[in-house]
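Usage

Read records sequentially. Each one opens with the input sequence:
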Amino acid sequence: MADLGRQLHEYLAQSKAPAAPAAPAPQQEPSAVPGPGWRWPWAAEADPWLPGLSLWQRVAGAALCVLLAALCFALAALYAPLLLLRARKFALLWSLGSLCALLAAALLRGPSRLLREPSRGSLLYAAALCGTLYAALGLRSTALTALGAAAQLGTAATALLGAVPGGIGGVRRLGGLLGAALRRGAALPV
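and closes with the structure output:
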């Protein structure tokens, strides 16, 4: 504990000392293949909300969250044929999978970066996700759970459409190209 206090005092002393202007580092062309000096783009700076986690701990945690999300999505897919009978379980598993996927993204990018400037779509998605979980776990209402899941899927679809270059016009153009290729019977290039 004393070592931690000493390190804190040294750090504070360094931040109070005037910094000498550093020479600009030479810009290197980013390499597509990871090499000795290569770093992941999201690991450029430590996130203040995750101060004690190293890069590899964050990657391992994100991998675990992705595995849990895949498990939840796979279990939700098993309930898809019984959607009318088990709508609450399907929505709960789907929402927990979405929550695990968001947690994986937060571990990789850093929660403060994800929450720095949230868009309206991401706020609506988070509200629909929380509403679905509350309706399934707290209220135990199948109708409200189904409504929340529909809102969640709608906001996710809107966010995905917004991510396509050109927005709705880009989706229409891609759909037209895909439809024309399917009508001609041509195979899609892979």
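Summary fields computed downstream for this record:
- The CA atoms of residues 64 and 104 lie 8 Å apart.
- Confidence is low (pLDDT under 50) at residues 26-33.
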